[in-house]
Amino acid sequence: MINRPIPAPGVVVEDLDDDVCLYRSDIDEVLVLNQSAGDIWRLADGDCSVETIATRLADVYRTDEATMRTDVQAVVADLVARGYLVEQSAV
What we know:
The protein is of the alpha+beta class. 42% of the residues lie in helices and 25% in strands.
C-alpha cells in the first residue's frame, strides 16, 4: 500500500458534476469515479497521506475514521492496481 498517492503521469482528468472521469491513453481506458471515490482522487495530491485523506473525508461524510480508512485504502489500492495512482516519490 502506498502512503502518499498522486495521479500517474499521463492520466487525463475531467470533472463531471460530482463524478470524476479518468482517461489513460496508453491503454485507451476511461474510468468514471463516483462522488466518494472522486473525493479520494481529488485529495490524492502527494501532499496528503492516505491517513489524512481518510481523516478529512470521515469528517465530511460524518463517519468514523476506521471505516473511512478502510474505504480509502480500498479505493487507493484499486487505482494503484489499475495504474491511475502512484506513490508521490515515484513520479
